[in-house]
Amino acid sequence: MKLRCAVLDDYQGVALSSADWSPLADRVDVRVLRDHLTDREALVAAVEDCEVLVVMRERTPVDAELLARLPRLRLLITSGLRNASIDVAAARARGVTVCGTASSPAPPTELTWALLLGLARHVPAEARAVREGGPWQSTVGTDLAGRTLGLVGLGKIGGRVARIGHAFGMDVTAWSPHLTEERAAEHGVRLAKDRRDLLAGSDFVSLHLVLSARTRGLIGEPELRAMRPSAYLVNTSRAGLVDGAALVRALREGWIAGAGLDVYDTEPLPADDPLRTLPNVLALPHLGYVTEGNYARYFGEAVEDIEAFLAGAPVRELA
Question: Catalytic: 4?
Answer without folding.
Answer: no
